[in-house]
Amino acid sequence: MSRRRVSRLEDLLAELTARVYALEQKPVERPAPAAAPVYTPVPVVVPPPPPVEQPQVSVHEELATKTTPVVLAPEPEQPVSLPPPAFVAETPLSDRLREMVGDDEWESLVGGSLLNKLGAFVLVIGLVLFLGYSFTQMGPAARVAVSLAVSGGLLAAGFFVERLQRYRVFAWGLLGAGWACLYATTYAMFAVDAARVIYNDTLGGLLLVAVAGAMIAHSLRYQSQTVTAIAAASAYGALALSPSKQLGVGALIPLSGALLYLADRLRWHAIGVLSVAATYGIIIAHGDQGSPLFTTQAFLFTLWLIFEAFDMVQLRSEQPRPGYAALIFPINALGFLLLSAAKWEKVDPAHLPHFLAAAALLYLGDAVLRGRMQSNAYQYSIVLASGLAALAVVRHAGGAWASVMLGVEAELLFLAAWRWRLRFLEWLAAIVFGGALLRMLWIAADSSAMVTWAGLTFHNWTPAAILLAVVAYTNRELRTVPIPYGYAGSALVQLVLGAESPKRWLGLVWTSWTAILLELSFWRKASDFRRQAYFAWVLAVLAVSFSFFDHFSRPAAASEWVSLAGASALGYWMTLRLWTREGKLFVSSLAALAATGFAMIVSWLQLPDVTVAVAWMALAVLLVEAGYRFQHNHLRMIGHNVGVGAFTRLFFANFTNTGVTGGLSHRLVTVLPVSGSFLYLYRRSREDAWPWLRLHLWLATAAIAILMRFEMGHVFTVVGWSLLGVGLLVIGQKFELEDWRWQSYALALMAAVRCVASNFDDPQSFAGLPGRLLTAGLVISALYVQEFLAPREELPRTYYSLLGSLLLASLLYREVSGSGLTVAWGLQGVLLLAAGFPARERVLRLTGLVLLLGCILKLFIYDLRNLETLPRILSFMALGVILLGVSWVYTRFRERLRKLL
């Protein structure tokens, strides 16, 4: 025993001893009879471990020799705390391997086994190169004799050395190399010109079979996969590196057959994988040898059949096989198909589709056989069969027929899956059908050829697309897994409709298809139909929109406005159906939005300009009413927004329209209904409590105010605004509409500003009275009326009063000049004071006092320096009298004024 092992055993013994000692030191109570003595545990002194030379005593033996009796009384289970185990350093990987295999085995593994196999492989390669190389001093017989001597020497040495147990691994390498050399030499004796000594091919083949049989017999006797693997690898390597392509390829069939028989007999799966991979690798390495197509195909088919038969035999075995054994099928299929296709492409490319079709039938039969052997073993074969058939169809058939044939293949797979309830086949059918669909889309985008049948002209791929659509919807009804055949069918139908419909009618056609899908979804209660309808509706909206922009004209052609109107009507129908049947708020809102846009465009294209705003407003009212009728909030919101659009339209075609019908201007007969509709919408929607609905009141007033500007002319607009402001103030206070009161404030300011900016400079006269005085007087009067209509002690009362006083002062400034302006402002102040006392309007009195103080400032700042002497004197005298009079009134009637104040 090595010193390292002894050390580890000592460490383990010390650890176990420490744990036993800890357990013995714990006091234990036991119930004992009165007469029986009570024993307590005695500490055990463990001697140090003996030296290495002394015999070892195990822990069990040591415990068995203890003479101290220990009686343990039963007690409740308690967790026992043990000291942590002693730290043991991790053993390096090399040391652990040495412990497992021993020092001698380790050296044998690296130095004896691996190097032995590599040396045998190199020796075989060298022998094959020797056979293929022509020497000037050695003939074929001499070369064969040398090779046979080397092969026999290797085999004899292997047989002799394998008797010694210690050198058995080395002997296996010699035996494998000997068999490989003998096999290569035997084949060269009749197949390689440089070493040919046998001219009868039949005799040479029999000798080669005999060598292979001897190798198999030897493997069966010793049952050593290592020997066989070395022999197989050496043989394949020799064939791969042989200068003669005949040697490299011709010997593959018997060699592979022998190895596969051996692998099946002894369940050596690695030999089988090695055989198939090496065989096709050698063929690829040697390349095309120029042999006839039939010969090459027969040779490849023979190889494929051998490997496929081996793989099927493995499937029938009841013993499980390792996972890597499944590589035989893909390697065999890949090698056979690629090499065969390359040969056909080089020699006869026109008939390559026929080979692909034959290969598809071959793998179809293979799938049937595999399915009978094992329930799920057919899958890879059927996938290959389907793929090969699809390639054959695409390569052979052209145009739309390729898609039709792919669709037929997919349908056959689907029907088989449906008949036998095979989910895998159904998914495979869906993949093939997807290829047919993609092919159809490619053809539709690339081909513009037309055909005529029964007086109808259509694209040459349309019948194929319709057939695929019918197949798709049929499969949708029969499906057992959630494969979206219905979506493919809908896409095909929409593709055909888009290609065969005139562009100007395309939007209406697609919208009609949308309605059909939606109704099918309600009838069949199928959500996939509804989603197809959504997609179709999106395309329809885009088609209608692009068609409108491409053919923009007013008035629109019948095809355009009919298409728009039809799309709009169907859009509203979709809105109501989706909402009332499914409760789809968002989707129905999108449909309503698109339908509303189409309706607005139709009315704009077909109706006279002046009536468009009225039509839009009518549409807004209808949408709001429909929203209340069907309890669709978004429909109402769309209606309100359409109303805002109608108001915007007024600026483009209504306010500036000068037409007259029946004595009424077009402005009047269009703007008033729009304004009244806003009031109706506000009144109708008050229960919604949406804050932004107050905008309707402002839009209604704005429409009337702008209409007054165009209807009442340049001068009397301010009068209309003032009167409208008075009415809004009265109505706003009566019905507690704060927005109308604010509109009254705005109109008052607008009227005052417009008077100063425009009316004061107007030269027109009416009944001998200047227009500026008439309009300004009416506006000022309206402002003071509004002051007294407004609630007392509120800011609006002061606002109206100050606005009227400022407007009157501005008018006096415009009409009176020189010393008369100071007197006029003084008289205005007196009048304000005089009116403020009886009316108990403090703002009037304060405004009058401010005006009088302003007059005093004007006297000393402006009049004193700029006026002539006489006007200056008159200003001072008049203002003095006014001030004295005001002072006398405040003094004389102090008590009465205090009551008035």
TrEMBL record:
<feature type="transmembrane region" description="Helical">
    <location>
        <begin position="350"/>
        <end position="369"/>
    </location>
</feature>
<dbReference type="Pfam" id="PF10101">
    <property type="entry name" value="DUF2339"/>
</dbReference>
<feature type="transmembrane region" description="Helical">
    <location>
        <begin position="197"/>
        <end position="217"/>
    </location>
</feature>
<feature type="transmembrane region" description="Helical">
    <location>
        <begin position="400"/>
        <end position="418"/>
    </location>
</feature>
<feature type="transmembrane region" description="Helical">
    <location>
        <begin position="689"/>
        <end position="708"/>
    </location>
</feature>
<feature type="transmembrane region" description="Helical">
    <location>
        <begin position="293"/>
        <end position="310"/>
    </location>
</feature>
<feature type="transmembrane region" description="Helical">
    <location>
        <begin position="322"/>
        <end position="344"/>
    </location>
</feature>
<feature type="transmembrane region" description="Helical">
    <location>
        <begin position="118"/>
        <end position="135"/>
    </location>
</feature>
<feature type="transmembrane region" description="Helical">
    <location>
        <begin position="714"/>
        <end position="732"/>
    </location>
</feature>
<feature type="transmembrane region" description="Helical">
    <location>
        <begin position="843"/>
        <end position="861"/>
    </location>
</feature>
<feature type="transmembrane region" description="Helical">
    <location>
        <begin position="376"/>
        <end position="394"/>
    </location>
</feature>
<feature type="transmembrane region" description="Helical">
    <location>
        <begin position="451"/>
        <end position="474"/>
    </location>
</feature>
<keyword id="KW-0472">Membrane</keyword>
<feature type="transmembrane region" description="Helical">
    <location>
        <begin position="561"/>
        <end position="579"/>
    </location>
</feature>
<feature type="transmembrane region" description="Helical">
    <location>
        <begin position="610"/>
        <end position="628"/>
    </location>
</feature>
<keyword id="KW-0812">Transmembrane</keyword>
<feature type="transmembrane region" description="Helical">
    <location>
        <begin position="586"/>
        <end position="604"/>
    </location>
</feature>
<feature type="transmembrane region" description="Helical">
    <location>
        <begin position="534"/>
        <end position="549"/>
    </location>
</feature>
<feature type="transmembrane region" description="Helical">
    <location>
        <begin position="873"/>
        <end position="891"/>
    </location>
</feature>
<feature type="transmembrane region" description="Helical">
    <location>
        <begin position="270"/>
        <end position="287"/>
    </location>
</feature>
<feature type="transmembrane region" description="Helical">
    <location>
        <begin position="169"/>
        <end position="191"/>
    </location>
</feature>
<dbReference type="InterPro" id="IPR019286">
    <property type="entry name" value="DUF2339_TM"/>
</dbReference>
<feature type="transmembrane region" description="Helical">
    <location>
        <begin position="141"/>
        <end position="162"/>
    </location>
</feature>
<protein>
    <submittedName>
        <fullName>DUF2339 domain-containing protein</fullName>
    </submittedName>
</protein>
<feature type="transmembrane region" description="Helical">
    <location>
        <begin position="425"/>
        <end position="445"/>
    </location>
</feature>
<keyword id="KW-1133">Transmembrane helix</keyword>
